[in-house]
Amino acid sequence: MPDALTAKGRATRARIVEGAAEVLREQGVAFTTLDDIRSRTGTSKSQLFHYFPDGKDELLLAVAQFEADRVLEDQQPHLGRLDSWESWHQWRDVVVERYELQGDHCPLGSLFLQVGRSGPGARAIVTELMRQWQEQLARGMRTLQENGLASPDLDVERTAAALLAGIQGGVTIMMSTGDSTHLRAALDTGIAHLRSTKGATATA
Amino acid sequence: MPDALTAKGRATRARIVEGAAEVLREQGVAFTTLDDIRSRTGTSKSQLFHYFPDGKDELLLAVAQFEADRVLEDQQPHLGRLDSWESWHQWRDVVVERYELQGDHCPLGSLFLQVGRSGPGARAIVTELMRQWQEQLARGMRTLQENGLASPDLDVERTAAALLAGIQGGVTIMMSTGDSTHLRAALDTGIAHLRSTKGATATA
DNA sequence: GGGATTTTGGACCGGCAAGTCCAGACTGGG
DNA sequence: CCCAGTCTGGACTTGCCGGTCCAAAATCCC
């Protein structure tokens, strides 16, 4: 068991996860075999099971965690600094670009569908990702309120939840149709909704 | 080949599609075999291939179409009559209820992931569903404008696209986390956004 | 009612991919 | 330099599942 991992061991393990993530993004989980991953990462069957004793599911779960981390990282530093309209719009652009580049396979969506049933592991990863994402959006909205740029009456949690849902759906639709119109519409409408609440009260 | 289908034949075919849809909703496409479908529908292997000569993919595609039709049907008649705030709220309730009952497997999402690559068939089904759905939302919004309940300055297509994305994402998140908060937030915020635009101009 | 056609049953095949196993190579510490 | 532990290669096994096939039953049409 990988209780004690050598530096080399850790490197190999990381190589497997990253390579697997690549292949999965390209082919989708349904069409990816362990042999695909093995050949891409230049490893052997035994290594795969050495580092992931529970087999494919465990590896898939590790990839899911890897991808989940990437999602928020790729939005930084913008997501952490949503304190002006300009920063909101910069963030918007980053999100659109990131998902347009990603191609037509949602790593997390498909991974979840595959592993979903088998345990609470996958669910926990997605839930935690959504929680953090929404939290950062909510923080940005509260900053706007503090700066007098948005109404203090705004229901921040609900609005953040709605915006997150819009992004999520926009991405889903883009994966299915190849068109990013809905993602842009969700982001723009969400931000416009925030802006439209200003002017109510501007405590200096 | 199913050029000529007897009444009995048509019935069997329909039974297969409906039964397959059930099983797929329960188990997810990744864990459903033709034998599962065969046993659920009380049919034999040869029947499956008699009615769907191209095998599993063709059957899955038929199920996808079946489910896509259901999506809009289940929202009627409310979706077709979005002419007052009351009707919008009724529709909202129907949507939430429908997806809360559906359980934790998105038939279309997973079907798309499976068949997606193999051809434009699946993509076309999803694209067409989204188009019709958005069109009906847009029509409802225009009705509101005509009735002086929403601002004529509202960008109807964009707002409809954003609302659709919100629903889609809300459903996706609910599938992953088991929590319908985001779906409700998306619907409520979307409708609230519509309402907030009124009063601007009310041409009688 | 009889022949053509459709529908049905289920045994069978073949390939693929997950997982096992063991022998051998590397590594790191004493 | 040697031993214990880790890492690696790859052949092999195994079970599953999509797909094929043919013959028998039911059905339809004349």
From TrEMBL, chains A, B:
<feature type="DNA-binding region" description="H-T-H motif">
    <location>
        <begin position="33"/>
        <end position="52"/>
    </location>
</feature>
<dbReference type="InterPro" id="IPR036271">
    <property type="entry name" value="Tet_transcr_reg_TetR-rel_C_sf"/>
</dbReference>
<feature type="domain" description="HTH tetR-type">
    <location>
        <begin position="10"/>
        <end position="70"/>
    </location>
</feature>
<dbReference type="Pfam" id="PF16925">
    <property type="entry name" value="TetR_C_13"/>
</dbReference>
<dbReference type="InterPro" id="IPR009057">
    <property type="entry name" value="Homeodomain-like_sf"/>
</dbReference>
<dbReference type="InterPro" id="IPR001647">
    <property type="entry name" value="HTH_TetR"/>
</dbReference>
<dbReference type="Pfam" id="PF00440">
    <property type="entry name" value="TetR_N"/>
</dbReference>
<protein>
    <submittedName>
        <fullName>TetR/AcrR family transcriptional regulator</fullName>
    </submittedName>
</protein>
<keyword id="KW-0805">Transcription regulation</keyword>
<keyword id="KW-0238">DNA-binding</keyword>
<keyword id="KW-0804">Transcription</keyword>
<dbReference type="InterPro" id="IPR011075">
    <property type="entry name" value="TetR_C"/>
</dbReference>
